[in-house]
Amino acid sequence: MPGGEELLPVTLAAFLNGTSGTWHELDEGNYLTHQHPAIHVLPAALAVAEWVDADGKALLEALIAGYEVAGRVGRATQFRDE
Question: What values do phi and psi take at 4, rounded to 5?
């Protein structure tokens, strides 16, 4: 229940956070990675951090690591002209 004490399953929370962030165009664009790495990482990191009761330092470290991985995957891909 939104705003209540009942928590959603972690996978559903990550999915809904990601959908909401994209829907409201809260995702950034990173030209060098050809994508929007934060919107792929932030929703899952927030949901898991709440699930495991992580502190802010652990959340920030996870966000930085996830952003780096997503960015490198994006840089390793190429668009096809079809």
Answer: -100, -170
DSSP labels for 17-79?
HHHHHHHTT----BGGGTB-HHHHHHHHHHHHHHHHT--HHHHHHHHHHHHHHHHHHHHH---
- pLDDT by residue, tens only, the chain of 82 residues: 456 677 788 899 888 888 887 777 766 777 777 777 888 888 899 999 989 999 999 999 999 999 899 888 888 887 777 7
CA-based max dimension of the chain: 49
pTM comes to: 0.69
Nearest partner of 51 among 18, 22, 11, 20, judged by Cα: 11
Residue type, 59: L
